Amino acid sequence: MTKSRFFCSASAMAAALAFGAAGQAAAQAAQATAQQGGTTVGEVVVTGSFIRGTPEDAALPVDVISQEDIERQGAPSTLELIKQLSVSSGVLGDTNQFDPRAQGSEGSGSVNLRGLGAQRTLVLMNGRRMSPNPFGQAGAGIVDTNTIPSVAVGRVEVLKEGAAALYGSDAIGGVVNFITRSGFDGLETSGSYRLIDGSKGDYTAGVLWGHAWDNGNILLSGGWQHRSELKVTDRDWATRPFAENPEGGWSGGSSVTGFVPVTQTAAGAWVPLLPGVLDAGCGPLGGIPVAGTIPQCRFHYIEYDNLTEKEDRYQLYGEINADLADNHRLHIEALWAKTDVPNWKTSPSYLTLQTPTATTNPTVGSLTPAVLAGWFVPAANPGLVAYRAANPGAVPAAATGVHFPGVFYRPLSFGGNDIFGDQNEGSSEGLRQYEAMRVSGSLRGDLPWMGIGYDLALTYGQQTGRRTGYDTIVSRLQLALRGYGSAASGAAGGCTAAETNNFTTNAGNTAIGCYWFNPFSNAFPDNAISGQPSPQYNAALANNPDVIRWFFQQVATKQTQRLFVADAVLNGTTGIELGGGEVRWAGGLQFRKDGFESEYNDLSDVDATPCIDTPITGAGNCPSRNGALVFLGTGEEADLERYVWAAFAELSVPVTDAIQLQLAIRYEDYEQVGTTTNPKANIRWQLTDWLALRGSVATTFRGPPLTQLNPSSVTALSFIAGSFRAIDLFGNPNLEPETADNYSIGAIFNINRFKATVDWWRFDFDGPIVGEPSASIVNTMFPASGPNQCSNAALRSRFTFQGDCAAANIARVRTQWVNGPNIKTSGIDVLADYDFGEVLGGALRAGVSATYTLEYKIADVVVEGTRVERAYDAVGLLNYQQIATSLPQLKGSGYVEYTSGPHNLRFTVNYIDGYTDQRPTISGAGKKIDETWLAEIDYRVMLPWDTTVTLSVDNLFDQDPAFARLDLSYDPFTGNALGRTYKVSVRKRF
């Protein structure tokens, strides 16, 4: 029998899959297919079973979104579509560089069913696996949904329960299967433009061509999506005063900060002349002075960032299907996709969490009494000379230099960073780029004996991620502060030989240039964002951009994930007849080969640049191999691979006409990790014509990704004690697979025009693979009230301090991937649809979908033998830098849709429940993150000449996102930063 997939509205498909109205759904599907030039509906394969002929109304909680329904909703992007799913929470995709769970993956997207973590949702394309994004959530094994060829997608099937018994690892929370269009014959072009206030708008273009012949067909598609930059400063609510949002992008470290005058005694000792001095440019430039023995100047770094980055996304897809002989069909598909984020924006420079050694800083280890580790600026620095002249008495006459504490200082801030061009407004930049390719081929059909069908497939996919950024080289900055800076161009300097020889390690080395770096506010004219003038500015003291390029260098990482899968599946009948029909079976084998490769440029490679002073001395031995950069860590190049073998079996048992039973079991063998066996049972019981019950019980699992077994590290940033500090996340070779028990009970209602499903679900996790929560480690070490835990040597070993053990002195926090605390979560899904029939000459429908999470209980978190987080329920909480992501208790949507002839009008409301920021330091505004109601209206008209036009208004009432005490003043995991948008989409068939 020839197979073809069908298209229908979400409500019609839900009726077919969930409500059991197969006859009505088939008629609607046939009508929708005919409208789109499809073919006659053949045998339908449902996600969640490998048995051919599995009934569409089986005991599977599958939601289906058709191409028709996507179009009626205004053709949202894949990311927008996923964020609207009530069953998906904590989605990656929008810029969120300030949360370690999202950093470094800008430009990629994810699905996060049940809020269990995107790495626990298996994403398939045409039922086959896809290679993960090498950067997604620090290499957690997340598939980048932005690589999906959206122009070619015919429907999306969402299986909302653990499916490891059938699909293996990663299907622990469910499966999302993107299925391409089938039976398409002709040429179709499409395009859209979305008007967004403050940006140049988003636009797409696509082309789809298909041709069918007697024994096969071909489908080719190309798509392009462009997303324009939207700056933080384009939204008033995103840039709030410190008093309104102290966590809203205000750092205690800046280039216009407090410094400590120092003097050298006749005996050669260095003595600090406390108290410190605050640069007089702080207040006039828009900073907030902070009094203290060493004063600080709060800097609003968020203004240099974007809410959405400029993105260009390209996708090419093709498939060919051919009948080689009776009941033998060949399928080959190929995908290439690329996402380019060319100008990712961030702060002008990072906080200096690593500081110079005695090699370049003569005061190191000799300041008595000791002050925070930092930077030495000699009295001869022209910036200091001019500052003392302009501010008489501010710096004691006895001072022979000044000291900048590292945890308060960054070399570039208010004046911006000039090395990226005048149009950049002072931000530092980086690149995010992903390139994916995938080839899959299958041969399926029927064997000539015993009625056995077969499906053999080979799939190879890979995604390569490139990521660049910039950071300050510790030793070069210190040399430039002392007058030994070089120019990136290699231009000659102006130092005397005597001055050069003062730097004894490099005496006579002409490679060391002769330039000063001026660290004071007299080096730049104004605030690069607000334009507020610097009263201290002296044009003669402006820093040479070439000197900045010399010490502010690019770091680059290239990582590739590879996946090869071989599948062999047999299916057939047993010959056993039960009351509901014949018992069917499926069984198969799977082989997977995972590969991971990482490459770094020299500054990012711990083997090439292991030490602070390596760039100037070439030395490779040092007490701490943290590299040469002030903030970012280093990585270790890797070339890893792993083999996984699996076998599974499945039975469909129609006990009676009313009772259907589905059984499955899978065995999987992970090289170097271990084995796991997981069973599953589903049942559906048709109690009456209008009511059926369904339920399932299963065990599921997820094996640790290669990147998490690799002992190398990645560096994230976390807001600690008023500034961002480095969080180093290390792999763990001792990780074991995580497992979970999954239960569900549901009811299916089909009462005339009303159809609904209600499902209760539960997951009990044992040893989930999680990154240790940095916020909990810090809060335990330095509680809001009570004594610190500095005497706890084991816990203290996770910290690197600049100076004594104190929260303000934290430079780095070490975390790792672990099999963490047990988690129990449960909730209720509701899906309902009502067909009003003919109203005012047209058809009126309405529906709702919602997920209500009852609990998300996380057991005690223990690090180094110390409980750092008490057991708690994460539901309804922000979960800032915790194991769980943002988890509103209720998420849902409702729609009303009216169709009359060629016209379709749809009104949708999406709802996200309010939730609480549970951090103990948060009170007042921002403690409660308000609920969100977003209305959307879409109008589609099918014009003559096979042309369809859709007009959409999203966020109809122009609601700002709910305020949260976070860097962007909203929660990117749940909120919408765009405001009201207007979109026009056009599709033309030829």
Quickly give the structural class. mainly beta
- What is the tally of beta strands? 47
Number of helices: 13
Query: How much is the average pLDDT?
Result: 87
Beta percentage is 35-45%
Q: The biggest beta sheet, please?
A: 22 strands, antiparallel, barrel
Shape annotation? elongated
Q: Indicate the radius of gyration in whole angstroms.
A: 31 Å
Spatial separation of the terminal alpha carbons: 29 Å
List segments where confidence is low: pLDDT < 50 over at least 5 consecutive residues: 1-45, 492-512
> Which percent bin holds the helix content?
under 10%
Structural description of this entry:
This protein is mainly β and 990 residues long. 9% of the residues lie in helices and 43% in strands. The protein has 13 helices and 47 strands. Helix 1 packs antiparallel against helix 2. It is elongated and about 100 Å long. It starts with 9 loop residues before the first helix and ends with a strand.
What's the topology here?
Elements: H1 10-19, H2 22-35, E1 62-66, H3 67-72, H4 78-84, E2 121-125, E3 128-129, E4 153-159, H5 164-167, E5 174-180, E6 186-196, E7 202-213, E8 216-227, E9 230-231, E10 250-251, E11 258-264, E12 270-272, E13 277-278, E14 288-290, E15 296-300, E16 306-308, E17 311-325, E18 328-346, E19 374-378, H6 382-390, E20 401-405, E21 428-446, E22 453-472, H7 474-481, H8 497-501, H9 545-551, E23 552-578, E24 581-600, H10 614-617, E25 638-654, E26 659-670, E27 674-686, E28 691-702, H11 706-709, E29 713-720, E30 723-730, E31 738-751, E32 754-766, E33 769-771, H12 774-781, H13 793-796, E34 799-801, E35 810-819, E36 823-839, E37 842-858, E38 861-863, E39 866-869, E40 872-873, E41 890-900, E42 903-912, E43 915-916, E44 928-929, E45 932-943, E46 947-954, E47 981-989
Parallel strand pairs: 2-5, 30-35
Antiparallel strand pairs: 1-4, 2-3, 4-5, 6-7, 6-47, 7-8, 8-17, 9-16, 10-15, 11-12, 11-13, 11-20, 14-15, 17-18, 18-21, 19-20, 21-22, 22-23, 23-24, 24-25, 25-26, 26-27, 27-28, 28-31, 29-30, 31-32, 32-36, 33-35, 34-35, 36-37, 37-40, 37-41, 38-39, 41-42, 42-45, 43-44, 45-46, 46-47
